[in-house]
Design goal:
CATH topology of the largest domain: Rossmann fold
Oligomer: single chain
CATH class of the largest domain: Alpha Beta
Radius of gyration: 22 Å
Distance between the termini: 44 Å
Order of helices and strands: EHEEEEHEHEHEEEHHHHHHHHH
CATH architecture of the largest domain: 3-Layer(aba) Sandwich
Number of strands: 10
Strand content: 5-15%
Number of helices: 13
Number of domains: 2
Length: 309
Amino acid sequence: MSEVVFLLVPKLHLLDLAGAAQVFSTAADELAESGTAGGYRLRYVAEDPEVPTAQGLPVKAETAWPRLGPGDLVMVPGWRSPGTAGGPRLTAAQARHLFDHHRIGGTVASVCSGAFALGQAGLLDGRRCTTHHDLQEELASRFPEASVIRDVLYTEDERVVTSAGIASGIDLALHLVAVRHGPALAARVAREMVVFARRNGDDPQASAMLRHRSHLSDAVHRVQDRIDAQFTKPLRLPDLAASSGVSQRTLTRQFAEATGMTPLRYQSVLRLERAEHLIGQGATVDAAARAVGFADARMLRRLRAGAAA
């Protein structure tokens, strides 16, 4: 089980904290319900045991840092400051904890103005980063060795992950869940939270499992859940319709409205995406075709040719 430690500073924004925390909490619940190992335990640390927030609701925290390893995450939510957003906000000990955790191979992340804390810890120099659009110029000025990327949801550079303002912390957390456990779990978490499922901060979304999840049709989500889990196996439309609780005709119509394709076309897209990954890792076309459920490589070659056209 991985520790997710939130470093809290005075006047932190509740949504910066709660959005990301909800993602990891929901992911932990999903993993526990499925009997899958590798969940999350959330911890909150601060200089004082009670931390005031920008919205007026105080939150409780531990004052002693837990023992952390390379598989753990430390995240700094953003805060409201009447002066410069850049702080200094961290104590020397807090900055050292961030730096040392990254040094041993751990991941360090920030939401919104939390990027300034990472900069104070010396983690932004020579790395891509971002923050809230109102603070980007100040971040670039305060940490001139950092490469501040504008107008993106989040960036990731050598286990230093930064996100833009407020709600983008949800996108960042979904990305981290997808990296560790796969896009299917991230999609289930996003669906449970009733938010759009995004994967990439600044590139076009690459995963079909997430790219076609930004809709509110429960029937289609149920079918996608089944296809996501079993796309390498033969799937019949009558069986998919039965699992969704609607007729074949209704399923085909609703699926097309939600995703722009039929259920079986969606399955083929997932197979192609996985096959391309395997080929990129050195597998032959024949081996990749077999691994994703094609009887032979001819269909895979046709799909690849169509995608390249």
